[in-house]
Amino acid sequence: MHVNALGWLLATALMVAASPALAAGDSFPPCFERALAADAGRTRPPFASWIGTWRHGDNWIALTLEGDRISAEGEAYWPGKNIMPANEGSFAGTAAPSANRLRIVDNSCEVGMTLAGRFLVVTDNQMCGGHNVSFSGIYVRQRDRVR
Q1: Per residue in 66-105, pLDDT tens?
Q2: How far is the CA of 84 from the CAs of 42, 80, 88, 98, 139, in angstroms?
Q3: How far apart are alpha carbons 16 and 10 in whole angstroms?
């Protein structure tokens, strides 16, 4: 299966799994169930769980702590950063998380983030950049590089 198709299937499964409309008895692959169950009992994950640079393909979102709020900035590309001509988009803003959710509004761009275990499930309103640019997907925190 093509990598982008696999990523889309993974993103769709996790977004559905994180949705409050999930019907009782629905099940997902064990890795998703564990990630969602890990956060189900938390009313507010620690700030350290949010902080870092998160990646989904060429797209990235950087989250930093500003007092009791989280500052977010990100860049997204379509079809990819190194595929020319690439369409691009960005956002930046600061907000306080509500439980395991964070919503950033930057002009007409709205980005919603849900912390689900070691994943950051991201959706947007398709108004965050050029044609077909979207932040929507499943992001994984980038490990700090040792120099």
Answers
A1: 999 999 999 999 988 888 888 999 999 999 999 999 999 9
A2: 43, 8, 11, 38, 23
A3: 10
Token readout for 6 is: 């696999």
* Domain extents in the chain: 3-21+28-141
Q: Report which residue type is found at 101.
A: R
Residues forming a β-bridge with 92: 73
Other C-beta atoms closer than 10 Å to the C-beta of 9 total 11
Render pLDDT for 100-146 as a digit per residue (tens, 0 to 9). 999 999 999 999 999 998 999 999 999 999 999 999 999 999 986 55
Sign of CA dihedral 132, 59, 29, 17: negative
Q: Strand, helix or coil at 104?
A: strand
Owner of token pair 């190194």: 82
Please give the Cα distance from 26 to 50 (Å, whole number). Answer: 27
What is the reported pTM? 0.72
Report the b/e string of 46-77 with b at 16+ CB within 10 A.
eeebbebbbebebbbbebeeeeeebbbbbbbb
